[in-house]
Amino acid sequence: MVPPFDATAAPSAAMTPPATSPGERAEPGLVAGTRAVFFVSDSTGITAETLGSALLANFPGARFERHTIPFLGSVTAVDAVVARLDRSAAQGTGDAPIVFATVKDAGIRGRLADAGAVVIDLLAGHLTELEAELGATAETRAGQYHGLGDLEQYFRRMRAVEFAIEHDDGQSGRDLASADVIIVAPSRCGKTPTTMYLALHYGLLVANYPLTDDDFPTDGLPRIVAPHAERCFGLTTTALRLSQVRHERRPHSTYASLAQCTLEIRRAEDLYRRTHIPFLSSATRSVEEMSAVILQSMNLRDRPRERPTP
Amino acid sequence: MVPPFDATAAPSAAMTPPATSPGERAEPGLVAGTRAVFFVSDSTGITAETLGSALLANFPGARFERHTIPFLGSVTAVDAVVARLDRSAAQGTGDAPIVFATVKDAGIRGRLADAGAVVIDLLAGHLTELEAELGATAETRAGQYHGLGDLEQYFRRMRAVEFAIEHDDGQSGRDLASADVIIVAPSRCGKTPTTMYLALHYGLLVANYPLTDDDFPTDGLPRIVAPHAERCFGLTTTALRLSQVRHERRPHSTYASLAQCTLEIRRAEDLYRRTHIPFLSSATRSVEEMSAVILQSMNLRDRPRERPTP
């Protein structure tokens, strides 16, 4: 049983370490040829995981066993983490574990450096470069990129996620005029996760609308989205990929058949071309890549900051 | 009008540069005392934005004007970006722009280094460290952290987002037994964005359930979630913050009154303590921080990899 967090105490004290503290956990034996990797952070660990994973992706021949240790120094005790790294170094192949660290406190960084691990410091070196360039000392207690932000930003994000839920899969035509983007596509081309990513990370109001057989008899976009054509963005994919994805939902259905998928994809792409709406294939792209292309092509990167406060 | 992407062409060729290419865009005049910052990437730019912003957050006294240039070398022409950086350096205060770069191609990195900008290379140095440690050469064409991943991973993510939408705000009790976490809280404590973040980034099945006045007459958790108490996680906040957030939705309502908020928060925290479910205050935490605490305290970090393929 995880002990309850005491929400009434101060922020950092509120996060009582779980009964099995991540710093004390016994390491499972490493598979031969696998290197232990730790993402260690005094905050959420998201930055360490993101950049560390981006770096490791360049070594496709190597195998890694990944562990994330967040909130080091507040929730997670430094001693226990150093001991865990030392244990990891002593076992298996004997290769020192690799640590991707985003730790601001110089004292804690020093302790980590003493562990039997290869520490790749993702913050400190660049902070020094920035200090030199900006002629200012980094206030390492001030910065918290994944911190709270202001209330307005919080409202925008909450509103965006709620708008996305309300307008998922054409559920509501209400307030479609407020949408920053309307993603249109046949079923299972990736509308929903892309919508959610844009809402959550950029605070954009994103609706999505399915293109079903019923929408194709006419020459244009579905009636509800047609007045907003200039804010529409289309998704497509390959018929083979679409069929795979649909089989996962409804195996051996007409819906998932290659013939049906081929037909729907061809009709959708024809529609996009005829109505001059930009479109993109999700077949070879992640949700992040699709979101980045949509932001760029619809010129939406700076939009949230321009939106007037309500 | 943004030209349509040709989805049938090869991935990189498919992304025709928008009519106003980001590399060619004229810079708006900088406000005095503001430093131009560019996040430049040959991929989505997400890693550059994440780490670059984390670094800048340590200089709260400085003002930055941020620009993201993704897909450099494929969609975005290098020459135009170098020219844009040079223009930026020449205008305003005359301070060189700061560039956070995640560019793998050594040739493109070399070109960027020649621009009149301070280039902070977020990848190359660390790649060299890793090469030395792993005794392998980085295959910079292989790695794409924000790339597609495998189909199973894609399915999991899609399923997770759909589960989150279906189970938002107690809408459905169906299949609640499959949930990895059930977030419970009074209205407007941050259930929905936290749910979506966990679903989108960790592929977890997350439901959320509101605690309304009706749920409090009894001694325990709401009837629908009670059988799953060991997977429940509670959110709370301060009455003042809750009142602010509710005023934004329904100004001057009883719902948003400080008295009502005080009452609901007290009841919710009492319930969490009585039923021994872990909880956390969203008053001083971002969605990312709450997600990281929930992952850690519920021991969910490695869960998706353990889930059997369907």
From TrEMBL, chains A, B:
It catalyses: [pyruvate, water dikinase] + ADP = [pyruvate, water dikinase]-phosphate + AMP + H(+); [pyruvate, water dikinase]-phosphate + phosphate + H(+) = [pyruvate, water dikinase] + diphosphate. It comes from Microbacterium galbum. It comes from the Bacteria. Residues 1-22 have a biased composition (Low complexity). One of its GO terms (molecular function) is transferase activity. The keyword NADP does not apply. Bifunctional serine/threonine kinase and phosphorylase involved in the regulation of the phosphoenolpyruvate synthase (PEPS) by catalyzing its phosphorylation/dephosphorylation. Residues 1-26 are annotated as: Disordered. ADP binds at residues 185-192. HAMAP family: PSRP. Its EC number is 2.7.11.33, 2.7.4.28. Belongs to the pyruvate, phosphate/water dikinase regulatory protein family. PSRP subfamily. The keyword Nucleotide-binding applies. This is Putative phosphoenolpyruvate synthase regulatory protein. Keywords: Kinase, Nucleotide-binding, Pyruvate, Serine/threonine-protein kinase, Transferase.
